[in-house]
Amino acid sequence: MEQVSESSVDDLMRGAVHFGSGGGGDPYLGRQMLIAAIREYGPIPLVKPGELDAHGLVLPIVYVGAPYALLEKAHDTDQVKTLRAAVEARAGRECVAVLPVQRAGFNVAVALTVAAQLGLPCLDADLMTRCFPSIDMTLLQLAGRPVRPMTVVGSAGVVTEFHSGADAVLGELLRSIMPALGLVALISAFEVTVADCAHLGIDGSISECWRIGAALRSVAPGGTAAEYAKLFTICGGRVLCTGTVVEVMQDSTDVFPRGVLSLQTRQDFVRVDFQNENLVVSREGEVLATVPDLISLVDVDTSALVQTVDLVVGQEVHVIVSPVDHRWRTPAGLAMVGPSAFGYPVDPVLCGDAPQTTG
Q1: Cα–Cα distance list, 256 to 123, 305, 307 (Å)
Q2: Reduced to 3 states, what is the DSSP secondary structure of residue 40?
Q3: Contact partners, residue 343, CB within 8 Å, separation at least 6
Q4: pLDDT higher than 50, residue 354
Q5: Whole-angstrom Cα distance, residue 83 to residue 71?
Q6: What b/e readout covers 282-316, taking b as 16+ CB neighbours within 10 angstroms?
């Protein structure tokens, strides 16, 4: 059985930022939270679905909220215990493991921290295979499973449960109550067993973060596009272009950040549209890459993956696009998480479809 120890946290979080696709919450806060949990409770067992009772109930975990609020409010042990008690009371049985809803940035650290606080192992799996902004954007939902029942515990310990209603409506309801919950909340959704995770074939999510993070560590500051191209060829990705930030326009009028990033390359200008995560990359109207593929940004000087909202004018970055789970690239998957799902009237452009360019 593998364990997540303090020595593995940096590589784990570095890889998790990649799956955030420019979003995913503050990795530094997640790192500090996870290290504190390991120091208090010890290394966290990381298990495969085949190592547990197939009928065992798992506790899906995701922490949602505005990025600026997450900087100030981390969950506490009381919230975690309240959430677990509510889920177990509803299901009529005990949880055997924690399941990350997403393996990106902040949330993979939250799930592992919750596992440590509850004395449970964490499944080496996740329900999104990357970061998406809505809890209904999971492979379980794609397979026809409803998000409900959903249990929400706010920062003040307020418990809200949703047992019925269309999933899209539940997502809107959740957003509407976030201000009353303090703009952050710990959530468990679906009713998931170990067998469900095995059936989805989502084994190895956290281990992959680990491997990619270790590989990224090997690239020295000032790494060239060629070095990153070689690195991301391993997971089917490539460097789309390299450019200097000339403008970052963003707002958070609906709580979550969205905007446009403009880069000047050697040839012309490249635009990156984002809503929490990077969603569309284009050049003079030509679409180069879109969600659901991962669109990551790497600071050229430090070789660190960066979040889009943290970029400043004059910063030079590599734009890297990498494929996601094949199920998100099907017609049904694209209808749920393709560019049109986020309001962009463009056709999906995925790895292998986009024109080759490194300018």
Answers
A1: 29, 21, 14
A2: helix
A3: none
A4: no
A5: 21
A6: bbeeebbbbbbbbbbbbbbeebbbbbbbebeeebe
Specify whether the CB–CB gap between 187 and 63 falls below 8 A.
Answer: yes
The single residue listed with the structure tokens 């420019």 is 22
Give the up-direction half-sphere exposure of residue 130: CA atoms within 13 A in the CB hemisphere. 28
Tell me how far CA of residue 247 lies from CA of 23, 53, 77, 282, in angstroms: 18, 52, 41, 15
The amino acid sitting at 276 is N
Nearest to 141 by CA among 347, 342, 337, 349: 337
Q: Using CA atoms, how far apart are residues 58 and 142, in angstroms rounded to an integer?
A: 19
- Beta bridge mates, 296: 320
Angle, helices 9-18 vs 27-41, to 10°: value is 150
* Residue 275, helix vs strand vs coil: strand
d(CA 345, CA 104): 26
The predicted-structure confidence for 70-105, as pLDDT tens digits, reads as follows: 667 777 889 999 999 999 999 999 999 999 999 998
3-state helix, strand, coil in the chain (%, to 5): 35, 25, 35
**H helix count then E strand count, the chain:** 11, 17
> For 318-337, how does the pLDDT look when each residue is reduced to its tens digit (9 = 90+)?
999 999 999 999 999 999 99
> What percent of the chain has pLDDT above 90?
67
Containing 14, the helix (H) or strand (E) segment is helix 9-18
φ, ψ of residue 204 in degrees (nearest 5) = 100, 15
| Omega prior to 292 cis, within 30 of 0 | yes
Is residue 320 within 8 Å of residue 329, measured between CB atoms?
no
What does pTM read for this prediction?
A: 0.92
Give me the amino acid identity at 52. Answer: L
CB count in 10 Å sphere of residue 126 = 31
Place of tokens 């660190």: 304
Q: What are phi and psi of 297, to 5 degrees?
A: -120, 130
How far is the C-alpha of 117 from the C-alpha of 122, rounded, in Å?
11
Q: Which residues of 262-271 are buried (b: 16+ CB within 10 A; e: fewer)?
A: bbebeeeebb
